[in-house]
Automatic annotation (TrEMBL):
Acidic residues bias spans: 292-309
InterPro entries: DUF6589
Pfam families: DUF6589 (PF20231)
Comp. bias (Basic and acidic residues): 310-325
Taxonomic lineage of the native organism: Eukaryota, Fungi, Dikarya, Basidiomycota, Agaricomycotina
Bias kind Polar residues: ranges: 274-285
Organism expressing this protein natively: Sphaerobolus stellatus (strain SS14)
Name the record gives this protein: DUF6589 domain-containing protein
Residue numbers spanned by region Disordered: 272-325
Stretches assigned to coiled coil: none
Length: 351
């Protein structure tokens, strides 16, 4: 597989080309540039909503499948790509803007899609368990979890204000991350006051307009967003899996029932025949009944203890956390003191 960064950029360029072509197809025009010169904001919004419903949703795929007996697999696969890539674009934008509710919405969809071909069941289960815990958390705990889930300060704490060499420590990280918003605002204030350019052009991302235009032109020439009967290549192109539809069908299977509904039945252990068998000369070569009784009772007692321990909850304490060199359980007071100092410097008084 290619690196994530390369794949990410390709998806963004490809998605932009697909969006251009579906807008052109929806409007029935040859040039979006000419149309954009006269369109109003309200009309633009209506066109975008209609385009999304007709080319980026499961309902759009179902409509095409229902309308035509002879399926255009290449067209259907293009619509499936639109459906999947727009979810990824939404996820990236939600993270960039720090909108955790949109992130959760995408995770709900991905949880279902990851069950589509059952290639990533552990990821699906992990998301399911996390979302289930969030649903059952008290409101305060859920809000705290969501507010701290997105790592907003990764760039600022690990790149801009990161200490170098031996100065890099948890103490420094705890102190600087509590001040990032104040330091960032101060930096922006200075840049605005003295008209300092935030960054140069040395590492500017190159324009992708030409690449996006090439993608849109290819889609237009091949008419991939239009149903074409007897399209060339359909005979050797099979339909790709609709991960969303396949994932939605998974909960109705017997396998899902076995995985998510635990069997609460426990067998009742009965004493063996040897337990009640009287001691007679005929069985003198075996184990006496009295000894069998003791052995059976001891075994049952051990099994009972094991079963009780099965449901014993393991609590993690500070001693356990201290075994992890990356934990900083002893720095809580220092973090709180740094936060109080920052609050006081901003004019807040301790209540």
């Amino acid at each position: 597989m290619p690196p994530w960064k390369t794949t990410h950029e390709l998806l963004y360029v490809s998605a932009a080309g697909h969006i251009q072509d579906v807008l052109r197809t929806q409007l029935g025009v040859d040039s979006l540039t000419e149309w954009a010169k006269t369109v109003s904001q309200e009309e633009f919004t209506n066109v975008v909503e209609a385009t999304f419903n007709n080319y980026f949703t499961s309902q759009a795929i179902d409509r095409v499948l229902a309308l035509h007996e002879e399926q255009d697999n290449i067209h259907i696969n293009t619509l499936l790509y639109n459906q999947d890539v727009i979810i990824y674009i939404e996820f990236c934008d939600a993270i960039r803007t720090g909108d955790i509710e949109r992130v959760v919405n995408v995770l709900r969809v991905w949880m279902v899609m990851m069950r589509g071909e059952n290639h990533m069941p552990k990821y699906a289960d992990a998301i399911f368990e996390t979302l289930n815990r969030l649903h059952n958390y008290p409101d305060d705990l859920r809000d705290m979890f969501l507010d701290n889930w997105l790592e907003h300060q990764n760039f600022w704490g690990k790149v801009i204000f990161s200490a170098k060499g031996s100065n890099k420590s948890w103490d420094w990280m705890g102190m600087i991350t509590s001040c990032i918003f104040a330091l960032r605002d101060a930096m922006w204030t200075v840049q605005g006051a003295y008209k300092i350019t935030p960054s140069g052009t040395k590492h500017t991302v190159p324009s992708m307009i030409l690449e996006i235009s090439k993608v849109a032109t290819y889609l237009k020439e091949e008419r991939l967003h239009v149903y074409v009967k007897n399209r060339a290549g359909n005979d050797v192109t099979g339909p790709v899996t609709d991960l969303l539809a396949a994932g939605m069908a998974y909960p109705n299977t017997a396998k899902a029932f076995r995985n998510f509904v635990g069997d609460r039945r426990y067998p009742i252990r009965h004493a063996s025949a040897a337990k009640t068998q009287p001691f007679t000369p005929s069985n003198a070569g075996g184990t006496p009944a009295a000894e069998v009784d003791v052995e059976v009772e001891d075994k049952e007692e051990e099994e009972g203890e094991e079963e009780d321990n099965r449901y014993e909850r393991f609590e993690v304490d500070h001693e356990d956390l201290r075994t992890d060199p990356e934990e900083f359980v002893d720095s809580t007071d220092e973090f709180m003191a740094a936060a109080v100092d920052l609050a006081e410097s901003l004019g807040y008084e301790e209540v």
